[in-house]
Task: structure prediction
Amino acid sequence: MALVHGSANPDQLVYVGVSEDLRARGIGTHFQTGKTGFSTLRRSVGALLKEALDLTAIPRSPGASRSNVLSYKFTVDGEQRLTRWMMDHLDVGFVVVPDGSETAEKAVITALEPPMNLQGWKNPQRPLLKRLRAICVAEAEQNR
Result:
């Protein structure tokens, strides 16, 4: 299954991010069950695979804050299915840059055009991802 519509290369880089603590950000957030509300990558992957994995969006935390809905997560069993899919289909890699700056991140995004990055390049998948994520936000709103 291609992660992004039109993407057929299983070796394609799909996301670029910067972190001072790769273990905490990469593995500890993006690939950890229950962390969808804190990972734009998990929210996008979950939105793309919502039907295939039977995911139900819910607010990230209880409370009236709009960010709890905008930064949705999935039910516990859905979070587990999403993590399993990511562990089975995605790999994490890293490159250490001398200054660790966001300038390096922007340069890599511009050069490699990763389809899951919603900012930093004219991503043709952005409208699709935004639409699918909006469906999840609406569902999380209903599940308050």
In short: The mean pLDDT is 86. The helical segments are 22-30, 40-48, 67-70, 76-89, 102-112, 126-142. Residues 22-142 form one domain.
